[in-house]
Amino acid sequence: MDVQSISDVKSDRGRILGQMIEMGHEQVLFCHDAKSGLKAIIAVHSTVCGPSLGGTRMWQYENEEEALYDVLRLSRGMTYKNSISGLNLGGGKAVIIGDSRKDKSKELFKRFGQFVDSLNGKYITAEDVGVSPADMVYVAQETNHVAGLPGKSGDPSPVTAYGVYMGMKAAANFHFGNDSLSGKKIVVQGVGHVGEYLVQHLSNEGAELFVTDIHEPTLQHVAKKYGASVIGVDEVYDMDMDIYSPCALGATVNDDTLERLKCSIIAGAANNQLANEEIHGEALRERGIIYAPDYLINAGGVMNCYGEVSGLPQEEVMKMAENIYETTLDIFKSSREQGIPTYLAANRKAEKRIAELTAQQ
User: Contact, 97 vs 123, CB < 8 A?
Assistant: First the structure.
């Protein structure tokens, strides 16, 4: 290795540590196994409230830098999500770099499980985008630090969707004066597992539904099953709608889309919906658009996993998800009273609990 190469490696390490320090991470584990083809990153953001818990996402990232940025943001979001939900859990997340439709294997997930186990319980994993409960069975063959397994709490998507539904109804109550979604024009962007369950709730209530997704077979199936209208991926931001519900990947509220959005409420299941919290959170407030903080209303999935880890009955887990309604209303009220964006009101509530627990340690 020449001098320039050594310098580049040192620079890369410095950038990684810099990002960790800036976001407040405790640990990042890079995982590689040539035999199975595994390339993964596990990020432990905080264990102040308990062991870090967060799902594993499998995605075909453009490069390692994009994967690292995603896992750092997602794991930080899990810390805030678990804290504001009152769970005795910290925040962590993992990403596996690869195409979930063709790169999966038993060996890959078993090897990933060994890496999870090497953290000795500091990180508890579960399913996320591109990963199913069936995949977690292979992970569980190598570690006990897994949640969301078949025969236990299973697929967290129904609970996640129910929490988002509760958060959306709270937003409607705050903005329109009542929480009925009947007749409201709602665009659901991304109709995978969580998105479809959400569409089901909205359809049952009589909402006027528009759906979009990059996976055409899934899109057509959901549209036909629930009587929703299909719109193009690029049409979303120019639709005249009451509620925009992003349920795919994050950062869809950004400099470009913000100028085009025609909605009163943003409430969806996707993580990190604001490309830049400070800029776009304040911009939404100035425009009078009610933003239901993503990590608050999509917390049903982690509640589901927490129920499994803690041995809680499913009825209690669903009650926790239902309580997202009241917590969301409280955040909206705090935002209005303090004159701050809703994301900031939520952050402060989550940070207050973390600070209190830190002081006790």
Answer: no
Q: Please state the pTM of the whole predicted model.
A: 0.88
Q: Which amino acid is at 98?
A: G
Domain ranges of the chain: 24-69+92-150, 157-353
* pLDDT at res. 14: 58
Q: Taking Cα atoms as reference points, which of 133, 161, 129 lies closest to residue 147? A: 133
Which residues are known to be catalytic?
93
CATH class for the domain made up of 24-69+92-150? alpha beta
Cα–Cα distance list, 315 to 24, 208, 328 (Å): 35, 30, 21
Distance CA 11, CA 7 (A): 6
What's the pLDDT tens digit per position in 332-359? 999 999 999 999 999 999 999 999 999 9
Assign domain 157-353 to its CATH architecture. Answer: 3-Layer(aba) Sandwich (3.40)
Q: What percent of the chain has pLDDT over 90?
A: 89
> Is 77 a residue whose pLDDT tops 50?
yes
- Which letter, b or e, does each residue of 234-271 get, where b requires 16 or more Cβ atoms within 10 Å of its Cβ? eebbebebbbbbbbbbbbbbbeebbeebebbbbbbbbb
